[in-house]
């Protein structure tokens, strides 16, 4: 067992001594902030504008349905004492139906927004990743990290590729 552990440690030390990239001497690292690219690039801003426009339309539809429900409910509550049992049951059933339709509309709106977000951002993210690959190959980077997902606590600004990616993305026609 000790011999095996010694062999593994010896192999790792040998790799570090003989492999310059393992020592960190020749490793080229870059990073970028995906959210900044999405927020500041023309394509990202167009996607955000299109998404927010659709979101506002859907929210207006849901608000209109909620307002209609509230008005019918208040009317029902005002007329409740004057209604016979059959009318109360019928109106209560109508209110339940309206409430279910409102909840269904809300769920469908949320699902549509999720679909739209995926539909709008997937080609954008794919293009950003293509640009990162190209920059990595042309710039001979060993690693390029996305700053937020990599959990970078500190990075030298000269390794920040965010603005370069934004410039390349802005050159691309959508």
UniProtKB/TrEMBL annotation:
Q: Which SMART domains match?
A: OmpH
* Keyword annotations of the record: Coiled coil, Signal
- Record protein name field: Periplasmic chaperone for outer membrane proteins Skp
Show the coiled coil region(s). 48-93
- What range does the record give for the signal peptide? 1-24
Coiled coil among keywords: yes
Q: Which GO terms describe its biological process?
A: protein stabilization
What does the sequence similarity comment in the record state about its family?
Answer: Belongs to the Skp family.
Give the UniProt entry's GO cellular component terms. Answer: cytosol
**GO terms for MF:** unfolded protein binding
Superkingdom of origin organism: Bacteria
Its ancestry begins with:
Bacteria, Pseudomonadati, Thermodesulfobacteriota, Syntrophobacteria, Syntrophobacterales
- Provenance organism: Desulfosoma caldarium
